[in-house]
Amino acid sequence: MSENTHADLSLTNALQTVLASKQLPNMLNSQQTKTLCNILSCNVIELAERMLPLAASFSFAPKSNFHVGAIAVDKQQQLFLGANYELEYGPLTGSLHAEQSAIFNALSHQADELTDLVINAAPCGYCRQFINELANAAQLKVRFNQQSYDFPQLLPQSFGPNDLGVQAPLAKLKLDKASQAPDFAKASYAPYTQVQSAMFAYQGDKVIAWSCYLENVAFNPSLSPLLTLLSQLTLNHLSLNNVERFELWEHKDNRFSFKQELQNFAEHSQKPMVHHYYPST
């Protein structure tokens, strides 16, 4: 565990016992959650609240120095950690919020329907709009500052996917049969543009992190695959030192491309990148 997580020694010791590792996890499966709750004599939400400092320790915030942790909980009582991530260069829009990080972490692990989102700070309006894209947003509980809210309380009179005629809002990504790079791009959630885009970080021939594009009905909170990829690297205890190259896979008929965004980052980080187009099938 990092030096920022030493305050709750009973939690740290319990995690090390259950996981047989000193490395902070980016998720807990149902059995691990149940065992930890038994050891610590707490319920799932109390466990998530205690783990928030651990989630925030994944934060990379060179601009704001404001470290946010979030934990998404699904129906199976699995916990998925997330933290904010900020690019060191460029405008302030080059940032991923902790809530987005946790939700993508859950989606990438094919989580069940999310029931709770636990955060160490009140969610900003941008994040509330992003959360509203979830298919079950109306049933989601959001917890922060020791208070619990039904999500609709945090975004009254909301603008959501139904307002643009989307009948299948964000739920599970279609990853069941994903094996080739285009399969992950096809898993993008893009009901407003149908853009398919996925990014990969490689160490040799091994994929060490991946991401895909997620859209939002309000457009601006749509989730760049670059920021999600960098967050996934951090959640997996990896850094740019582990990355030998980046790859971007996009459908040849996409209405726009993330090539320039990745190219800018690759130049900044002095890492090679490869851009692939794939045909329709």
Task: List the SSEs and their pairings.
Elements: H1 9-19, E1 27-28, H2 30-40, H3 44-56, E2 69-74, E3 79-83, E4 85-86, E5 95-96, H4 98-108, E6 114-119, H5 125-131, E7 141-144, E8 147-150, H6 151-154, H7 181-186, E9 197-203, E10 206-212, H8 225-235, E11 245-251, H9 259-269, E12 273-278
Parallel strand pairs: 6-7, 11-12
Antiparallel strand pairs: 1-3, 2-3, 2-6, 4-5, 7-8, 9-10, 9-11
Verbal overview:
With 281 residues, the protein is α+β, with helices and mostly antiparallel strands. The chain has 2 domains: 121 residues, 3-Layer(aba) Sandwich (Cytidine Deaminase, domain 2), CATH 3.40.140.10; 98 residues, Cytidine Deaminase, domain 2 (3-Layer(aba) Sandwich), CATH 3.40.140. The chain has 9 helices and 12 strands. It has a 6-stranded mixed β-sheet. Strand 7 and strand 8 form a beta hairpin. It is globular, with a radius of gyration of 18 Å. The termini are far apart. The relative contact order is 0.11. The N terminus is likely disordered.
Our Rg estimate from Cα atoms comes to 18 Å
> Count the strands?
12
Shape, please?
Answer: globular
The DSSP helix count reads 9
CATH topology of the largest domain: Cytidine Deaminase, domain 2
Order of helices and strands: HEHHEEEEHEHEEHHEEHEHE
**Unreliable residue runs:** 2-6
Overall pLDDT, averaged? 95
| Sheet/helix structural class | alpha+beta
What is the CATH architecture annotation of the largest domain? 3-Layer(aba) Sandwich
Mind summarizing the main beta sheet? Answer: 6 strands, mixed
Strand composition percent: 15-25%
Structure at a glance:
By secondary structure, this protein is α+β, with helices and mostly antiparallel strands. Helix content is 30%, strand content 21%.
